[in-house]
Amino acid sequence: MNTHKAHCLILPFPGQGHINPMLQFSKRLQSKRVKITIALTKSCLKTMQELSTSVSIEAISDGYDDGGFHQAENFVAYITRFKEVGSDTLSQLIKKLENSDCPVNCIVYDPFIPWAVEVAKQFGLISAAFFTQNCVVDNLYYHVHKGVIKLPPTQNDEEILIPGFPNSIDASDVPSFVISPEAERIVEMLANQFSNLDKVDCVLINSFYELEKEVIEWMSKIYPIKTIGPTIPSMYLDKRLHDDKEYGLSVFKPMTNECLNWLNHQPISSVVYVSFGSITKLGDEQMEELAWGLKNSNKSFLWVVRSTEEPKLPNNFIEELTSEKGLVVSWCPQLQVLEHESTGCFLTHCGWNSTLEAISLGVPMVAMPQWSDQPTNAKLVKDVWEIGVRAKQDEKGVVRREVIEECIKLVMEEDKGKLIRENAKKWKEIARNVVNEGGSSDKNIEEFVSKLPSIEKLQEMTTHKAHCLILPYPVQGHINPMLQFSKRLRSKRVKITIALTKSFLKNMKELPTSMSIEAISDGYDDGGRDQAGTFVAYITRFKEIGSDTLSQLIQKLAISGCPVNCIVYDPFLPWAVEVAKQFGLISAAFFTQNCVVDNIYYHVHKGVIKLPPTQNDEKIIIPGFSSPIKASDVPNFVINPEGERILEMLVNQFSNLDKVDWVLINSFYELEKEVIDWMSKIYPIKTIGPTIPSMYLDKRLHDDKEYGLSMFKPMTNECLNWLNHQPISSVLYVSFGSLAKLGSEQMEELAWGLKNSNKSFLWVVRSTEEPKLPNNFIEELTSEKGLVVSWCPQLQVLEHESIGCFLTHCGWNSTLEAISLGVPMVAMPQWSDQPTNAKLVKDVWEIGVRAKQDEKGIVRREVIEECIKLVMEEDKGKLIRENAKKWKEIARNVVDEGGSSDKNIEEFVSKLVTIS
Fold first, then answer.
1. Would you say the C-alpha torsion 310, 313, 319, 323 has a positive or negative sign?
2. Is the entire prediction scored with pTM above 0.90?
3. 18 in active site
4. Of residues 4, 467, 478, 603, which has the active-site annotation?
5. Is 570 considered catalytic here?
6. Per-residue pLDDT tens for 626-662?
7. Where on the phi/psi map is residue 528: left (φ > 0), alpha (ψ -120 to 50), or beta?
8. Going from the N-terminus, what domains does the chain have, and what CATH number goes with each?
9. Which of 570, 633, 704, 833 is catalytic?
10. To which H or E segment does residue 468 belong?
11. 128 - beta bridge partners?
12. Which terminus of the chain has fewer Cβ atoms in its 10 Å neighbourhood, N or C?
């Protein structure tokens, strides 16, 4: 049963300073039993050093997935494209979550993205605007929007009176965009925050009532305002959220140990902490003045200088620092630094997040505002809250060293600074109280949650029968079949969460948008298997770290209101069974290879097949499979002593298979009747394939047109445009998948074999393989005769009427696609299960031929040419082509309603519900 009161979709503007406050608010909502999903742009996710694991994160697009704002031509182009693409991908996400047992009923959005309101209304959802800046700044922009403040002010010292704010301010106190004519487009966006604010249900402000009483009361007459701050981790305030110790999101990696070790050796309240945030850039002259101001103050200081800013420091400045006097770091854990007893002052740009942190932790400030809202925040720090001083700029806009020195000493030493320091302590206490139980912000959050519509009515329409956690081995060839099986389960009202490793997610060009994806760790987050060095090291570490992070994910989902009750795992990861048992979950092993291959590994496991076979032509009899096979037909790991460690993993798939509730096979009964019947006497087997998108088979899942996951970007237009100009069944399609690597000699033989066949061909040659082609091969191709591409949309190609034959490595996914789409094959197996698949293609299903290798292991050009012509031209090939069509029809029927695989999936789901 879902225990959530509601489900909020959080949509921040993609910058750390906007995301963190909304992330913290989300944690408060979560503590009050609201389910949270945070939507971040793909470009933003790519730059993150850390990501919170306590809330679900989903990706949308801003239209610039590779570089975000920096990829766009200009600010206007970015905002325009974000509105267009963001609206579409946000809608897709809402639809995806509609199909879960926790549908969204509220969008909390950043008003920098006002189009989110229209999306919310389109789906009948509640909308709440979340202003990340304080209410005074919001009020200023509101009056710009209303035309009360004329732009730009005529004089820098001109007094500006703002309704709702008793203090007069001059032009130097307003946000920089307001007084800068060059910032017209940004001011337009800031003013547009209010363009449709009258349509929202609630306006949330990242501040607290006690801090801005008058302006909040004035603004509350216009909009339904609730202050919900300060939005900093609970363990620095009320300490009610015990796991909320940090934001959990950062674009930089902090030098935590260096900072804290150094601070631990400094006297209480003796250190000036200096930071200008994650974006601000100081000019060279200002950087030098600041450096000497700090040094001349004679105070110990901890200064954050981002690596891009370090070249602006005076020559030898860092080298000449003594360890007692100063420490310069590239980034630091700011909350821990501000909380540290040795910190006595914060020299800050007065970004609102930094200001709010200083207020919450009782640290007095020296304000050196640079741009945006910072001048207004500095005004409040100095004149309204009286918790700091403002370092004045000269006529060149530079704060001189003597001013910096004077400000630091005033705050940290002098009598005048005593009131500042006392006020800082006072506001610290108030900040803690407002988020504690019964405080003003806590009450506002409670009221916000209470007014959210109950999720129970939505659940009645979208109830799930069960929740399966899918755990594939992290390579595309293993993930795609499990992804497709997941879509079949989802169509039968099973909730799906797919767990992928962080290292794998980093390499993806595409990710499926139709289901939830969560990250676990294989212990090598930066490089996966390649980072590990050896296969054994990778598998060992993956077991250790994977077990822990999978357990954490299950625990996270347990409190989400949609707890997992079944793990479907790849038997390459047998430890998943133990994790499932630990949590009392059902477990199902999902074999991505066919049943004949699985049977061979099973008999290796049982010692029936002796390793390695003594001769290449030695016949091997395998129980459950009537066709005798040779050593050259078995998976190469079985006959290759060097593959011992990989074989060990393959055999270990069966080590605890007697503990699972089901064994799912990526095949279909009609294809392997004999071996499936035999294996079913040992294990509770269900065939559930072929696992290719529904629109190429039964067409019952209308949105299932592609896998939705790819490591490479296909040259779709080039491939299909070329194929459209070729006659029916005239083209040979050639591909060796995403992993197989041909030797240079084999590459050359293949190239000439294709050319000599006199058939038009479409050949996928990955960019890493292209240098192996014969000199000038691509240049000499005529457009009619051949096309070489780096990657292609394989399903669309195999389905195309111009395709007459598939020259393939016989990877199981490719073989199953060819069977499902009725394309006869020329098999050129390379490694792994491919020799066995080729045996089945040629001798059992009779849907292709196998190109024989010579004694050097090379398939020669004349053999390739002969095989192609046999399949595509000769009478002997007629039976192959007819069989291919027959199997295509059978493949479609087995997944259609009432087919063997469809019945098996139905039975799996029904028993899942019964056991659950």
1. negative
2. no
3. no
4. 478
5. yes
6. 888 888 888 887 777 666 778 888 888 999 999 999 9
7. left
8. 6-134+196-236+446-451 (3.40.50.2000), 256-427 (3.40.50.2000), 715-894 (3.40.50.2000)
9. 570
10. strand 466-471
11. 108, 202
12. N
